[in-house]
């Protein structure tokens, strides 16, 4: 008689002992928020893991995920559609075009302007003897509709020893009439605080690897209001290392950026589009689930009495899914 095996209903791993399944569920944090295959619904840590799964030959996975995805799957969002016609209609919306080059700011914030999220990007030049000290030289903020709400060059606080012209396109002349860093920081905070002077953040701050932007601005902001496309688990590599914004834009939005010099506006728009694509995902009832410790709040003895489906039902994500921002 073969021993009873216990199967994870999320990633399909098999375990000889129930307690091993419980330990797996506690460290995996499986939930409806996790990226998953649109064919077999296998849960993965990141969308990159889903891509790898969909490239596994069907005879190795004992399924038909690869063949179905190749016929009816979107290579950007990884969704599966009923037929080729539905897929073609979807691709026209999913595949985006690069934004037009920025000419002048297009939006002025009024007292009653309602914003929920803004994206930020800074370009840095180099200071210090070897040019390795990052100095903020330009900044751009855009809203969810990709309208520029703030854009300016910044006067470096230290002498510039490397303008990094190949990447930034900036020269000494560009920065000569830039805003003072202190004035820039106050302007950014005023936007993020909704025009109030109390220093309390009210808007979500979107960006890619935000710690660099915040460091060069000498800006502190509540972590629960940060939406960082470099640190969001579903957008990371299979080993949970950050992807570049250039890679994410090409793989999830369908167009190229940073082909020459880096444009803050272009990077802002890419980060905002990535955020909105993740935010607008449909996770069903998961969008209303309560935050908590999930399986770690249960006694081990009670967990070992649960069926695999019950373990999954009581499991919660290890990160806050951006779909919850729609509430």
From TrEMBL:
Query: What GO CC terms are in its UniProt record?
Result: nucleus
* Keywords noted in UniProt: Exonuclease, Hydrolase, Metal-binding, Nuclease, Nucleus, Zinc, Zinc-finger
- From the UniProt record, give one GO term of the biological process aspect: rRNA processing
* Ranges of residues in domain C2H2-type: 6-35
Q: Which GO terms label this protein's molecular function in UniProt? A: 3'-5' exonuclease activity; exonuclease activity; nucleic acid binding; zinc ion binding
State if Hydrolase is listed as a keyword: yes
From the Swiss-Prot or TrEMBL record, state where the protein is found: Nucleus
Family statement: Belongs to the REXO4 family.
Q: What is this protein called?
A: RNA exonuclease 4
């Amino acid at each position: 008689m073969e021993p009873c095996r216990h199967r994870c209903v999320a990633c399909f791993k098999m375990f000889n002992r129930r307690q091993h399944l419980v330990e797996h569920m506690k460290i995996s944090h499986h939930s409806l928020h996790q990226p998953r295959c649109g064919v077999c619904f296998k849960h993965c840590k990141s969308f990159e893991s889903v891509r790898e799964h969909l490239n596994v030959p069907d005879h190795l996975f004992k399924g038909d995920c690869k063949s179905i995805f190749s016929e009816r799957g979107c290579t950007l969002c990884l969704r599966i559609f009923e037929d080729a016609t539905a897929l073609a209609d979807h691709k026209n919306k999913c595949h985006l075009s690069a934004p037009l080059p920025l000419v002048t700011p297009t939006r002025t914030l009024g007292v009653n302007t309602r914003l929920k999220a803004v994206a930020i990007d800074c370009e840095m030049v180099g200071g210090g003897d070897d040019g390795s000290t990052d100095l903020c030289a330009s900044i751009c903020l855009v809203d969810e509709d990709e309208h520029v709400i703030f854009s300016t060059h910044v006067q470096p606080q230290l002498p510039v020893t490397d303008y990094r012209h190949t990447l930034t396109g900036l020269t000494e002349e560009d920065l000569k009439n830039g805003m003072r860093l202190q004035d820039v920081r106050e302007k950014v905070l005023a936007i993020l605080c909704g025009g109030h002077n109390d220093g309390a953040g009210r808007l979500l701050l979107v960006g890619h690897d935000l710690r660099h932007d915040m460091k060069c601005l000498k800006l502190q902001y509540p972590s629960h209001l940060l939406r960082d496309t470099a640190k969001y688990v579903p957008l990371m590599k299979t080993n949970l290392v950050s992807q570049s914004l250039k890679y994410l834009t090409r793989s999830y939005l369908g167009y190229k950026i940073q082909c020459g010099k880096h444009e803050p506006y272009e990077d802002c728009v890419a980060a905002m589009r990535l955020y909105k694509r993740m935010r607008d995902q449909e996770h069903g009832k998961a969008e209303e689930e309560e935050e908590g410790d999930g399986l770690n709040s249960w006694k081990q003895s009670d967990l070992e009495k649960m069926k695999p489906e019950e373990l999954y039902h009581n499991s919660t994500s290890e990160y806050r899914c951006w779909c919850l921002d729609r509430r």
